[in-house]
Specification:
452 residues, mainly beta, 3 helices, globular, Jelly Rolls
Length: 452
């Protein structure tokens, strides 16, 4: 248990002794949890008693339609109903946070792109003001597609709170440590971990170690779920027990506060007189999670050939097309390569999916130059891509003994929609103008007289 796991924000009370907890978390992706910060605050045998203990208000947060199967919802027992955390709203502008559809003039999205890490400035940047949208895809109004962001955060939100009515957020830290103080409890995340923040959940983001930088996949569509393993069977890849939901924690603070809501791509702000993080107890299956990427168990070829990258899927957000995801979150981490007579790095290809990659740390095996930690690349749908010359020559001529890739961790946000660059990605972010040239030196090797 780290120092940061033990510390709580001033005035926050957290559940203790809840069955199955570990350092303030409960294990199991999609489980039906129950947790209370005060003994007896959670009703038993029913959801909505005539009077809740401690003078609490019962309220349901629904992440799906009532008739969806299975329904995803959480019952909360809170100091004030959330209508008391909502007043008249004013539009505000967060100019760097964009939503689809967003196709700016003067920016070309057709191409293979790569960026150096976006560097922080001396300006105080919170979770809201430090978000920088790189690409958008689909349509936020019809709840399909996604946006990919870089966050630069060096200042905590103070008596300020946020939720997105548009989207679920998948957060991938690359440097620094953040705390998500949510209605349902506390989640601390650092590099090589991820956090999943559901649509509609109120939270505040604090900097534990900064400056903090990372990546965000904003999912407009159906929520992330674990991929079907099919013939792989019941084990390997990401296991449900390694996802951790927080135990109940609440604030009872009467202090002028601000709540910002993202709704249909627009941002609205309201003033309230208390902290909205006042859930004393809750039960249900609609909750935030954290996950340690180092627990991901990769599988691959153990005789010959290189499988499709889908074999490395951690989470998937389904679409209405069977077998074609709205978003896949794919992880490339340490692993053994043992395939015989095989070109082991990812092969050259183009496909229907658009691939946005980020480097958390180390070196990616298909790009030996220029793809640095904190950097990103985009290979849009039906555009060819693959190893640079150095990677191709090395893999084509190497001694194919067992080889372990170590100290490497990259990921991919993959979507069935084309990803459109924002003005920031095309004009302000540190774009590597020479990235496309990494394939220029590939040589013609064809010789009709030599079949070998």
């Amino acid at each position: 248990m780290t120092k940061h796991d033990l510390e709580l924000p001033q005035g926050m009370i957290r559940a203790t002794g809840t069955t199955g907890t570990h350092e303030g978390y409960m294990p199991g992706f999609g489980n039906d949890f129950e947790t209370e910060a005060l003994s007896g605050a959670l009703p038993q045998g029913m959801n909505s008693p005539q009077k809740c203990n401690y003078g609490l208000y019962g309220e349901q947060l629904s992440g799906t339609a009532f008739t969806a199967h299975p329904p995803e919802r959480t019952w909360t027992y809170r100091i004030r109903p959330s209508v008391k955390h909502s007043a008249r709203y004013d539009r505000i502008d967060l100019p760097y946070w964009k939503s689809a559809p967003h196709v700016p003039e003067g920016v070309t999205s057709l191409g293979q792109y790569r960026w150096d890490p976006v560097e922080a400035t001396d300006e105080d940047l919170t979770w809201l003001t430090g978000m920088r949208t790189m690409t958008t895809a689909g349509d936020v109004n019809t709840q399909v597609g996604m946006a990919a962001h870089v966050y630069l955060v060096n200042a905590s939100m103070k008596d300020a709170y946020f939720y997105s009515a548009d989207s679920e957020l998948l957060v991938v830290p690359q440097q620094g440590k953040l705390r998500f103080a949510t209605e349902l409890g506390i989640i601390n995340v650092e590099p090589q971990e991820i956090a999943i923040i559901p649509r509609g959940l109120v939270y505040r983001v604090e900097v534990l170690e900064g400056p903090a930088r990372g990546f965000v996949c904003e999912n407009y569509g159906q929520k992330f779920e674990m991929p079907a393993r099919g013939p792989i069977g019941a084990n390997a890849l990401a296991n449900p027990r390694d996802f951790k939901a927080p135990v109940a924690a609440y604030e009872d603070r009467d202090v002028p506060s601000t709540l910002t809501i993202k709704w249909c791509g627009q941002f609205h702000e309201t003033k309230i007189n208390q902290s909205p993080l006042d859930v004393v107890a809750w039960h249900g299956n609609y909750a935030p999670f954290k996950y340690d990427l180092k627990t991901y168990c990769p599988v691959g070829a153990i005789l010959f050939d290189h499988p499709d990258p889908s074999i490395f899927t951690v989470l998937t957000a389904p679409s209405g097309v069977p077998g074609t995801a709205n978003i896949d979150f794919v992880l490339f981490r340490d692993r053994w390569l043992v395939a015989e007579n095989t070109f082991r790095p990812p092969w050259y290809h183009k496909n229907i999916m658009s691939e946005l990659m980020g480097n958390i740390h180390g070196q990616y095996d298909a790009k030996l130059q220029g793809f640095v930690p904190g950097g990103m690349s985009l290979h849009n749908m039906m555009l060819p891509h693959g190893p640079d010359k150095q990677a191709f020559e090395g893999a084509s001529n190497s001694n194919l003994g067992p080889e372990k890739l170590e100290e490497t961790m990259s990921f991919m946000f993959e979507t069935r929609f084309p990803q459109h660059l924002t003005e920031f990605a095309g004009k302000e972010a540190p774009l590597q103008d020479d990235y496309i040239d990494c394939w220029d030196s590939l040589e013609k090797k064809f010789d009709a007289e030599r079949p070998d």
